[in-house]
Each structure stands twice: as C-alpha cells, then as structure tokens.
Amino acid sequence: MPEPFLGVRPPTWLTDDTVAETQAAVEWAVQAEHLGYDMLFVLDRLLAAARGSTGLPVYGGTMVDPFLMLSAVAARTSRLRLATLVAVVPFRHPAVLAKLTASLDVLSGGRYVFGAGSGWSDPELRMFGVDRRRRGAQMEEGIELVRQLWTGESVTADGQWWQLDDVCVLPRPVQRPGPPVWLGSFAPDDAVTWSGRMSDAQHRALQRVGRVADGWVPLTYSAGHKRQLDPAQLAQGWNIVAAAATDAGRKPDEIDIVYAHWIAIVRDDAERRACEAVLARYFPGDYDDARATYLIGTPEEIAERIRVQTASLERIDGYLFTPINDTTEHLESIITDLRPLLP
C-alpha cells in the first residue's frame, strides 16, 4: 500500500492588504511543494460571511475565488495536486462548472481534484433559490452532468434542476475520464447528536458518497460544540459508504478515505503563545476548548489522537491539515516531525 498523501490549506482568509496577502498565500503554496507536501486545497465561499440556518454568522468569507486561487498556484508549482474542498455545485450551472474544472485541470497539467459540496450557508442558498432539504440531490445531479460534459461529447439532459440541449464543453480535462470527485459528510451538530446509529439524512448523504465519489473526506470535529466525532461514527459512516458503492457496482477499495483536520504543533510555551494568538482571532473558547476541538499538541500526541479516532477505519489514504499557525516554520514541522508518526 502506498504511503498516505499529505495536503495542507494555505492562509486564504484576507483582511486589509488583499494583494499582498494573496501573493503571500501563493508563495506559501510554493514553499509547501518545496517541503514535499502532496496536495493543496482551498475553500469556496461566495459572500462576505458564512451564516448557518439560524442566520447567525459562523465565520468571515473574505477570500478570492477558489478556481482563480488554484490557477495562480498552478502557475508557480509543478507537482502539487490542487483541490477545491469544496466547490459548491448548486451555485454554478453544470456547463460553467465543467468549463472551470476542465480548464483548471488543463492549466495544472492534470493535477486538479474536484472536491464538491452542496452548500450550507443560508444566505447563499437563499440567493440561488436552493432548497436546503434537496441540495444533496441537486449536487448529485450536477456532478453527473459535469462528468458527462467532461467527455467532450454533446450532452442532452432533462434533469430536475438543469436541462441541457445538445451542449458541448471543451477543452476536456487532462485526466481521463476526469478529475477525481471527492465528497464529504457529517455536519457540526453530528458530533453531539450521535446515539450509535446514523440519522436518515446522514444515511442518505453517506450512500451518495458510495454511489458518486472517488474520495471520502468526512468532517471530523465540531468547532461550535468543541468536540471531535466519535470513532464509531466514522467507522459506521465508512461501512455505509462501502455498502452503497458495492450496491452501485463499484469497488469500495477504489474510494480514497481522506482524514482532514485543523492542526497546531505545540511543544513549548512559545509555540503555545503563537497558537493562542491565532485562535483568539476566531475561536469562541479557551485553550482547553481548542485542544478538545482541534489537533493541538506535540507530534506524538497528535499522531495518537488521530490513531484513536481512525482506529476502526480499514485504512487512511491521505491526510489534509489546516495549520492553525500558518508560518513556514510550522509548515515544515508538520511534514518533518509529524508525518513520520502518522498511522
């Protein structure tokens, strides 16, 4: 079995000096490739703030378009795989999305990974007229149409959300039949509502992963509730994904299992102060709350927490980390000191 790949998210939240901050993020990505990281991933946030179903703000959304950001990184790198995690499918027509994803795959020489999602920020969903209760099914229809359009052949389809009449999109992606499609699962509230069995909504989302996805990237924590997902929940989630894949005539072992989390290596007082300074900008809790939520500690402590949370999964094909402290020194520590310890 090949060594699990390792990916990171660059500092893409912007403040006042947007030009300098964006350029710095590209340089950060170049440094990540130089250090030996395998992948770089970015968010897709359209409006200036992300808000939940209650209308309360969850976090600020000041960031450049993910496809443009990854195009800038593609121009400066040669090896890093580049992922949107996630591009919100219901917010874009499938023809537009097919054009964007194929173009990025061409510009990067076949390095793009299409992490796709259904959206959750309430103002964005309302702005596009997306039914929160049906957005997963709408996403699935959109992905199917994008994949058809990636063939370069004319597509005619009469779907529930989109209709295509002899539509052809070129160029085709470099990767054939197209970039890998990755899907997530679970929501922050799932960390506290787990009772030993999946809800009907969770079950449907996980079955969709099995039918559609080339990779599974489940949410592993809840910042709002300050806890991690139960290991048994992750294990049961994968069992549902695998069963749905088999029922769809697919091979479960061809679906990547990708572990994603926020991370901070803290070995001394200086590293703790640096971590706390960043957390103070956005995390609604104290340092102990943050440690309960994220992977914060020595490399040995972090590796052990990952091992415990993923113990019931049959494998891990890759790790995706969001460094809490985004200095290049921290970036180097993750790959030098932690990677050799990962399960």
Q: How is this structure best described in words?
A:
The chain is of the alpha/beta class and 343 residues long. Helices cover 41% and strands 20% of the residues. It is built from twelve helices and 15 strands. The chain has an eight-stranded parallel β-barrel with strand order 1-2-5-6-9-10-13-15, surrounded by six helices. A two-stranded antiparallel sheet has the order 3-4. A hairpin with a 4-residue loop joins strand 7 and strand 8. Helix 1 packs parallel to helix 12, helix 2 packs parallel to helix 3 and helix 7 crosses helix 8. The longest helix is centred in the N-terminal third of the chain and has 18 residues. The two termini are 13 Å apart.
How would you summarize this macromolecular structure in one to three sentences?
This protein is of the alpha/beta class. Helix content is 41%, strand content 20%.
- Tell me the strand order in the biggest sheet: 1-2-5-6-9-10-13-15
| Overall 3D shape | globular
Main beta-sheet strand count, sense and barrel state: 8 strands, parallel, barrel
Give the number of DSSP strands: 15
List the helices and strands and how they pair.
Layout: E1 5-8, H1 18-35, E2 39-42, E3 49-51, E4 57-60, H2 66-76, E5 81-88, H3 94-107, E6 112-117, H4 122-127, H5 135-150, E7 155-158, E8 163-167, E9 181-185, H6 190-193, H7 200-212, E10 215-218, E11 221-222, E12 227-228, H8 231-247, E13 256-265, H9 269-279, H10 287-293, E14 295-297, H11 299-309, E15 318-323, H12 328-338
Parallel strand pairs: 1-2, 1-15, 2-5, 5-6, 6-9, 9-10, 10-13, 13-14, 13-15
Antiparallel strand pairs: 3-4, 7-8, 11-12
